[in-house]
Amino acid sequence: MSKFWSEAILSLQPYVPGEQPKQGNIIKLNTNENPYPPSPKVVEVLTHFPKERLRLYSDPDSTQLKQTLAQHFHVDYDQVFVGNGSDEVLAHTFMAFFRQPLPLLLPSTTYSFYDVYCDLYQIKTQHVPLTTDYRINLADYAQPNGGIIFANPNAPTGVALPLTDIEALLQENTETVVVVDEAYVDFGAESAVTLVNQYPNLLVIQTLSKSRSLAGMRVGFAIGSPELIAGLERVKNSFNSYPLDMLAIAAASAAIEDQRYFEQTTQQIIADRQWTDEQLTALGFNALPSSTNFIFASHPEISGAELMTHLRSRNILVRHFTKPSIENFLRITIGTRQEMEAMISALKEHPKLA
Amino acid sequence: MSKFWSEAILSLQPYVPGEQPKQGNIIKLNTNENPYPPSPKVVEVLTHFPKERLRLYSDPDSTQLKQTLAQHFHVDYDQVFVGNGSDEVLAHTFMAFFRQPLPLLLPSTTYSFYDVYCDLYQIKTQHVPLTTDYRINLADYAQPNGGIIFANPNAPTGVALPLTDIEALLQENTETVVVVDEAYVDFGAESAVTLVNQYPNLLVIQTLSKSRSLAGMRVGFAIGSPELIAGLERVKNSFNSYPLDMLAIAAASAAIEDQRYFEQTTQQIIADRQWTDEQLTALGFNALPSSTNFIFASHPEISGAELMTHLRSRNILVRHFTKPSIENFLRITIGTRQEMEAMISALKEHPKLA
Fold it and tell me: Which positions fall inside the Aminotransferase class I/classII large domain (chains A, B) (predicted)?
């Protein structure tokens, strides 16, 4: 608190990311990072990048990366926007489209940063409850609104919607922007990118932090109609001309191009998620059906907080949210098979799971 | 223009950065980049960075870099804020401190991004004219305000203020935030960082893009009182948890640590600025006294636009602004001695300068 702050800053409740421990010897299953390193082609590009060029500004349009993404997703160049992580892309999205007279509709349980952006930009919200089995029901979103955003698969539940549900909403909701945050889509859900040419109010946001193993490089992107992308560019160019550094542009482009490595690593994670899901179920957990690189699970006899503490005492970090409706759940990132075995073994050391 | 945009987006006039040509064979003196590559220690750190770590999120607090900066500037850790280029630091600064009932005071001619941020965040402004010899007169800023920002040295004029003038303003103006943007300070001006412990409303912003040869890596920072830094952290953590990627944190830390290389390269640029200034003066130019890595100069008989076109036809890029009060000037970045010789030779090919 300070007399020097703008008034709106006083009431901000910033987002709190998952812990990034500085010591080693920890099995880190708390921030949905990929257990596999970036593609060898990314490493090669970064190693051989002519570093004397860093004295120059990076390309303010990130042309190389936008071209790579446009080709990959079979869209035009002017349908692609890139930013410093999908969090920055989301922030600009809220600024560009959601400051409207009517409230933004969003799930009552979803990526908690959405509410923070709304605070920051003073956007009215209306939270739509999940179903009793923790699903988004898009039929509930067919009502007057100043925009709609949801994650698919949703976070932290991991549950995906079928594309037909999203298209049904888009047929109904044509006058405001619908944002589908697909941070986890590559682990088993259907992307709405295939719908952007039919629905000019649809914006799809993805990240290279999860399925492309580049969380430490901070690159996200959006795909939509040229008019939505132009709105995002206006905000970006009024905020920071050069959001991506040269190495981020080069690394991200190489990561998108290495489709084979991407498929190998995502398939391995999906297989290990399946194994983990079976193990958790055998231990009596209720694991929601995941289309992501994490599992959201609760146990009928042991609280989420207790389970988190139990794992932490064995040097295993998982994420626990204190929000009442989900406080009994753990969000467990899918690591390597060995890490998942260690996590399951550690759970079995709990007296009620032995 | 789109019906999907938030209303305030319609009237934005985004900042237009200097051209980043994609072809080679150009002498690029238009965006104030450093002609020398980053420190060899930066290159070494980047080359040997363990790239498999990029699968993990970067440190959201950029601890290593903040510690390095705190040590370098003899301030505490909680007096340092870092961002994705000083442009992002500036954007958060406008959001955090300048949305006030009274208007922000800023020079009528200065870094043109300031007005763009004010548009973006709907901040009222009052522009204070420069003196007839293109100087900032801080006595003119002693009036009711919602904040004060100026660049020192100023851009695009290159003219620096003495620290005593800044301190006199701070003694008078204690209730609102005073931001000194020191993007170019290392080329010959006095930094106000030495005043931050006395004036809790003073925020000093610097960048690694100029004197540290890291424009392509996107790192800027602010130094001020813990309460100002806390305000910036609130905005940053409501916008993007991880603004600096791992390589940016590592590169920037190494750049700050290599004081010897920094001094060598800045001294060389200052010497070549002196040479260029003499040459321009001999050609009849009016060159403002520069404390930066550029010279702002006009010629009494040839328009700025004509001179820019003349140089461009010889593959030399300089910056020209169409704003009426400065449209006769060129902003010429100080490159290598060889580049400055080429620029002077090219000017001499103009019929009126031959």
Answer: 25-347
CA-angle at B248, arms to A49 and B336, nearest 5° = 65
Q: What pLDDT shows up at residue A25? A: 87
Which residue of chain B has the CA closest to A116?
B238
Query: Is the CATH code 3.40.640.10 the one for domain B54-258?
Result: yes
Average pLDDT over residues B48-59: 97
Q: Which alpha helices (H) appear in A98-156, and where do they start and end?
A: 113-120
Q: What is the ipTM of this complex?
A: 0.96
Number of other residues whose CB lies within 10 A of the CB of residue B180: 27
- Locate CATH 3.40.640.10 in chain A: 40-257
All CATH 3.40.640.10 domain ranges in chain B, comma separated: 54-258
Omega before A17 within 30 of 0, i.e. cis = no
pLDDT digit string, tens, across residues A274-312: 999 999 999 999 999 999 999 999 999 999 999 999 999
Query: Cα distance from A354 to chain B (closest Cα, Å)?
Result: 32
B48 touches A: beta carbon within 8 Å: no
Nearest to B179 by CA among B128, B114, B244: B114
Mark yes or no for CB contact A215/B20 under 8 Å.
no
DSSP H helices in B222-336:
226-236, 246-257, 259-282, 304-312
* A127 in contact with chain B, both atoms CB, cutoff 8 A: no
For A56, the closest of B59, B95, B215 (CB atoms) is B215
pLDDT of residue B1 exceeding 80, the answer is: no
Fold topology of B7-37+260-348: Aspartate Aminotransferase, domain 1 (3.90.1150)
The pLDDT assigned to A354 comes to 86
Burial B237-246 (b: 16+ CB within 10 A, else e): bbbbbbbbbb
What CATH class has A40-257? alpha beta
Q: How far is CA B39 from CA A175, B43, B62, B255, in A?
A: 52, 7, 20, 6
Interface residue A215 vs chain B (CB under 8 A):
yes
Residue A193 has pLDDT above 90, yes or no: yes
Strands A329-333, A294-298: pairing kind: antiparallel
Question: Could you give the CA distance from residue B6 to residue A231 in angstroms, rounded to a whole number?
Answer: 9
| A17 vs B20, B116, B241: nearest CB | B241
Q: Does A60 touch chain B (CB under 8 A)?
A: yes
Question: Is B129 in contact with B137 (CB distance < 8 Å)?
Answer: no
pLDDT grade for B20, boundaries at 50, 70 and 90: confident
Q: What contacts A40, CB < 8 A, 6 or more positions away?
A: A258, A261
Task: Tell me the average pLDDT across B254-262.
Answer: 98
Nearest to B239 among A47, A91, A217 (CB): A91
Instruction: For CA atoms A92, A95, A100, A106, give the dihedral sign.
Output: positive
pLDDT in tens, B109-129: 999 999 999 999 999 999 999
Give the confidence band of A34 by pLDDT, cuts at 50, 70, 90: very high
- Residue A89, pLDDT > 90, answer yes
